[in-house]
Amino acid sequence: MITKTWEQYHADIRKLGEVLGAYRPDILAPCMLGGLIPAAILARELEVKDVRPIDIERHGDVRRLAYDIQGDIKGRKVLILEDDIPSGKGVLYAKQIFEGRGAEVKIAAVYVNPDTQKVADFYAEVHENLPNYPHKQFHAGDRTRH
To answer: Does 146 score more than 70 pLDDT?
Structure first.
């Protein structure tokens, strides 16, 4: 398994910013907790001032939002952001909810695997096994609540 250093992780997040090209969201919606560090870097790089974290919980195969994006998002471009996408179920669930509220939604991740590559509209790298991070040594997948 690959372990990323802070320097590599930061470079990969900036690479994701480059992959976004001209796309500029109105709102960054980083998933707790993995999307927070990429959101801090990308918000500065993209000059996005509106960052609204979301928390996707997993109960077995069921996903739900512990808390979701605040305020009216109708007609706004929302970028759901993750560090990695192991299955895609959580981000696709959030996308469906936000589109139902009239938002234009895209999904971005620093890392995807070959199966979730099609889930993300934007990503920096594809890895068969998602990497370990300097701040998260063991990949735990989605947050689970009991």
So the answer is: no
